[in-house]
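Newbie here. two chains, one complex. Structure please?
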Amino acid sequence: MLIDVFPTAAGAEPELLAGKTVLIIDVLRATSTITTALANEAAGVLPVLTIAEAKEAAATFAPGTFLLGGERKALKIPGFDLDNSPRQYSKGIVAGKTIIITTTNGTVAIKQALPAAALLIASFLNARAAAREAWKIGTDIYLLCAGTRNRFSLDDAACAGMLVYYLQELEPEARLGDLAFTLRHLYLAYQKDLPHLISHASHYQRLVALGLEADIAYCLQQNIYDIVPRWDKRQNLIVL
Amino acid sequence: MLIDVFPTAAGAEPELLAGKTVLIIDVLRATSTITTALANEAAGVLPVLTIAEAKEAAATFAPGTFLLGGERKALKIPGFDLDNSPRQYSKGIVAGKTIIITTTNGTVAIKQALPAAALLIASFLNARAAAREAWKIGTDIYLLCAGTRNRFSLDDAACAGMLVYYLQELEPEARLGDLAFTLRHLYLAYQKDLPHLISHASHYQRLVALGLEADIAYCLQQNIYDIVPRWDKRQNLIVL
């Protein structure tokens, strides 16, 4: 079993992902938000690339059965129901609803990975469950970091390192690609103080400047959910 | 001053590099070879993308004034004078000659970075000199790893980490981008045993399988040259 990491969606050519298990990581905040929405009993999450696409998709749902969520420049999109803050996706708001979501980095990474044999959603919130689920499938595993505007992002990298660490616990003989090796090392060096590590991320600093510290604190909680959202090819939807 | 790292050429959009100082890193082996060629008094190095382009360029030089070098799949190109082994670029062979070179990763990265305000060639062989030279220019500095077939490569990453470390010694207040932070950390963890770190690189393993251990040992020597090859926009050539 090979375990490797792509630092951004751009480098992950669809043909490389075909036949593999892909874990999508966008810690701040898309994959944390999707995980939270499904933990809180959303019916499913439909990732789309553009605002226009989100509105088109919405037109195919009956009123009251969906919510529009996501962000541009980390802020709520005009006319949308929810932004990209996982703390907004509470049970009272999302239970039973389909969430149509578009974000700058995370939904791009998800769309890029649709050719994968299995596509799972990972974050610190569900890292242990996501690693276990990916490992059970038994194929090579690629961790696809969403990154920030097509650049390597320390928050996603730290989570990838944690996932590599968990995966290697499950499969000690797994071969680690170069970035998997590097990020496992980074995670081990900082595992006792991940908030300190992630405070160096430029994306972190941007969110703090927008007053989103509470979101960051929420997203850095480890293994609070034992669920793994996955792309369902038949439903064309992320579900549990 | 911002210091950051691109893991591969693909992620480094030319508009991001414009106005910056860019250090190109392809430890195994292109930037080690270019540095060696110029240390051994080659007149200049002309990087080209394709074999056809190399032959076209050669036709513009007088016989005996140039050499064709490079690799495909790590091996010598049929009809070329030299492969991509830095140990072939000895003074007796290269002095006074222009080297026309095409490689799988390194020359691609160099071509990608031509919009940079200053483009310097770095390797373990000349890392300290390259860091100093880049720092003296005073702009933001991007380290552009060639990577291996568009993937993050541990050999280049380790050298990038060393360069970040040297640069931060020179400019303690420099802001480190996310990957610069990560790789400085990796370098510091392994600085006493870089060969061990780099033995984990999949590119290393490919070169060992081809019997190129002596090239690797050569390329991992630190700071044996106090020179910094740079792209000269007027001459369209890498020179000292």
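Moderator note: Chain B touches chain A at residues 5, 7-8, 10-11, 13, 150-154, 157, 176-179, 181-183, 185-186, 189, 200-203 (CB under 8 Å). Strands of chain B lie at 2-6, 21-25, 44-47, 66-70, 98-102, 118-122, 141-145, 175-176, 230-232, 237-239. Thread marked as resolved.
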